[in-house]
Amino acid sequence: MPEAAGPRAAMAVALSRGFRWGQRALAWVPVLLIAAVVLWSYYAYVCELCLVTLTNPVERVAYLAVFHVIFVLFVWTYWKSIFTLPMQPDKKFHISYTDKERYENEERPEVQRQILAEIARKLPVYTRTGNGAIRFCDRCQLIKPDRCHHCSVCAICVLKMDHHCPWVNNCIGFSNYKFFLLFLAYSLLYCLYIAATVFKYFIKYWTGELTNGRSKFHVLFLLFVAVMFFVSLMFLFGYHCWLISRNRSTLEAFSAPVFQNGPDKNGFNLGFVKNLQQVFGEEKKLWLFPIVSSQGDGHSFPMRTLCEARNPLLANEEQWDDDGLDEESQGAAEAAQN
Predict the structure, then answer these.
(1) Whether residues 187 and 73 fall in one domain
(2) Which of 260, 286, 312 is the last residue of a domain?
(3) Is 47 a catalytic residue?
(4) pLDDT 10s digits, 263-290
(5) How far apart are CA 30 and CA 34, in angstroms?
(6) Taking a C-beta distance cutoff of 8 angstroms, is the pair 115, 145 a contact?
(7) CA 74, CA 290: separation in Å to the nearest integer?
(8) Counting beta carbons within 10 angstroms of the beta carbon of residue 338, is it exposed (0 to 12), middle (13 to 18) or buried (19 or more)?
(9) What is the pTM for the complete model shown?
(10) How many CB atoms lie within 10 A of CB 104?
(11) Residue among 148, 165, 171, 191 flagged as catalytic
(12) Which of 49, 148, 258, 299 shows the smallest number of beta carbons within 10 Å?
């Protein structure tokens, strides 16, 4: 039996590794699909429309010049969204080996909460769980900074996590949220420009005024694809613009962050201008480029009221019940929502 267990264990490990590699490979399928569509659109616009269909040289040069400016910005932002690694919490948020043993050996939940409160005493954390406990990640073994969440796909805690996007095969958070927004904006502009400049020749091909068979196919489908992507991206981009105006992440839009006085969906809302600066920074000349300019370090964020700026993890720990918010916190939560 022991001799048979060895090969079985090795096979199980090999199968597990193979499964993980398969998952990682499949995760790139949406990215490759987008890349294929973009490459085809480039060929169809540059070769079939501009070089074959257009006859006016001035119009051809103008179309190509503007197209390539938008194309470069579009590809640049997409590249940055894919390959900018999500930021993880600093080492100071990880608990020590001694604290880890103390926490894991303790069976009483109230004592575990007290241990975490002691560990977090010197950390800039101001948000809690729904029942008033300190936000702790059992998998990463760290105290979660404000707005930090664990991504089950990336298997890491991500600073100011917004969501995991399969279309960029990356977790969107503090380090690349600006790049992702610019990617959506330039994707919309790319689709809109193609649709606007192709439409006239789409009509000519549709009515039979132009008869080039191969170019007709590319031009017709170019308009359909551009309009289809524009409509779908418009809703997504509009939603994220609304989130920026309220200084919320996608996760916070579904579940409001919890402060000392309870949940407050507007806890990080500083006003439209300051909310915008949180993502794009104060240097407006950098706003339209995928260059790092966001404010802060991703570990702490300014809050809406001064009373919430005091470290709530150090005071009134006893006012939180294990079963949920107490009556005072519930009243504050209702007031914040009204």
Answers:
(1) yes
(2) 286
(3) no
(4) 999 999 999 999 999 999 999 999 999 9
(5) 6
(6) no
(7) 10
(8) exposed
(9) 0.84
(10) 12
(11) 165
(12) 299
